[in-house]
């Protein structure tokens, strides 16, 4: 789960200065969570998480999509990779990156909200660049490692929830 501390905190907030991805478990089988551990600390304006192939956990924040995994079995992320980064002056969390989804063909989908109409450049892991601004929110697709970034739809407000069906149609909220 996302433990959010950076999404519009009050001025007098004394909690952590960053967000955390937490593992929540029911260790005694009673149907109630009784163990909470931090898997990944340090993100800012975290908007979405999704488990992906090969034990990667994909994380979308306002300004980037990354993936992390635990390779040594201690329950904490020890490997991280960038998938996509957003270069823009926009900073409102709801209209940044989010809405992670995988299709049945090995692609990752994510959304970019309308970004307050500000110009932007979205950069994939292979340095593919997509620029825009003012067209509304978009849905992008890339390989699970962030390469081959492409825009697949445009004209949304803020596409938070994205899914695909078995024949490849894309749906969003």
Descriptive account of the structure:
The chain is globular. The protein is mainly β and 173 residues long. The model has no long low-confidence stretch (mean pLDDT 96). Strand 12 and strand 13 form a beta hairpin. The two termini are 20 Å apart. The protein contains no helices and 15 strands. The strands form 4 sheets. Strands 4-5-6-7-10-11 form a 6-stranded antiparallel beta sheet, with no helix packed on it. A 4-stranded antiparallel beta sheet has the order 8-9-12-13, with no helix packed on it.
Helix content: under 10%
- Catalogue the unreliable spans: none
Q: Roughly how many Å is the radius of gyration?
A: 16 Å
Whole-number average pLDDT?
A: 96
Tell me the number of strands: 15
Count of helical stretches: 0
Outline the biggest β-sheet.
Answer: 6 strands, antiparallel
* Helix-and-strand structural type: mainly beta
- Strand arrangement, major sheet: 4-5-6-7-10-11
Q: Which sequence of SSEs, written as H and E, runs from N to C? A: EEEEEEEEEEEEEEE
Assess the beta-strand content as a share of residues: over 45%
Principal-axes geometry comes out as: globular
Distance between the termini: 20 Å
Defining key terms:
173 residues, mainly beta, four-stranded antiparallel beta sheet
SSE layout:
Blueprint lengths: L1 E2 L15 E7 L9 E9 L2 E6 L5 E5 L2 E6 L9 E10 L8 E6 L4 E6 L7 E5 L4 E4 L4 E7 L6 E7 L5 E3 L5 E3 L1
Task: Describe the structure concisely for a colleague.
The protein is mainly β.
